[in-house]
Amino acid sequence: MGYPIVSRSSPRQTQAAIVRVLPDLSDIGSIPPMNALEILRETIRILRSDPSTFMSILVLLIFPVSAAMLSNFLISQPVVGAVGRSMLLLAISCGLPPARFLKQTCQHLAGTIVSSAICFPFLITFLLLARACIAYSVACNYASKKVVPTEFMGMVRRIKGRLLCTYIWVCAAILGCLYDIHCTRFAVCSSFSFLGYPPEITIYPALLTVMGFSVAYAHTIIVCNLANVISVLEDASGFRALLRAVCLVRGQTQAGLLMFLGTAIGLAFVEGLFEHRVKTLSYGDGSSRIWEGPLLVLMYSFVVLVDSMMSAVFYFTCVSSSMGVLNENGLVLEELEKLSSDLTAVE
């Protein structure tokens, strides 16, 4: 059962209302604040209310990107190996031991970096369009309106510059966060190595540093996902969308982190299955790849779809929470003004 939409009509709320670019969706009200599990339930409710639309998005837009990301058919393995060796040499120069875990980690990171770079045209077209369509469809669901493809395409033509600008800023924010993580790890490892600690000891502060910055990375991903939704549903883009996302996510960090954790576990699980069951021939004659490969790509696409829908629902809950704080502040201000006028009348 879905959450009721509460309409708002007070003057203070009207002044604080968000200027939306979507046509005929101005009657979207507020949604009660939800935790991560409730956001997931609400996402499933929305998915069940209009499965044809979201399944079409999955098959037409998300599935090709997932296939390219998982199969790595566009990636040159020698390039991945060269990048992995460079990262391994850099890690060893910081004082880390050349353990098998470190080699596997560097190889995995190299594959992720090269895959993201090669598949960037897919990400900036298919995936960006899919996220915009998902945000639009969720907004239509809350407005009790039917998704109109022609209306959506008209909206995309108007806001395509805003979408691209926001996506570039999002990529810059993620790269900046990763750069800070690696620079800090390099500084910590170099410091312990300079003090004479052996590599077996140096690895522990490095792991603690990475674990600490993982929270910052997760928070960055949450803000970036929210900024992508904002660029679709509000008249904001680029750096303004990121600032707006930072303001909205205040007080909702726990739900966002749990959402990120669930999505990361789901994607990692499917990637591991694809690596073991499709890429690596560890059993039989490999004939099962014919049906296991597309099935795992479909599972990966479904996780991406649910994550994008949860980001859109999370946006509405954050807006509702933000509007609630504004209303409380407005009531407090009205009480103070009334008290001040009463004191003036007594004097």
UniProtKB/TrEMBL annotation:
Transmembrane segments: 54-75, 113-142, 163-181, 201-234, 255-274, 294-316
Highest rank taxon of the organism: Eukaryota
Keywords: Membrane, Transmembrane, Transmembrane helix
The keyword Transmembrane belongs to this UniProt entry's keyword annotation: yes
Keyword Transmembrane: yes
Name this protein carries in UniProt: Uncharacterized protein
Species name: Vanilla planifolia (Vanilla)
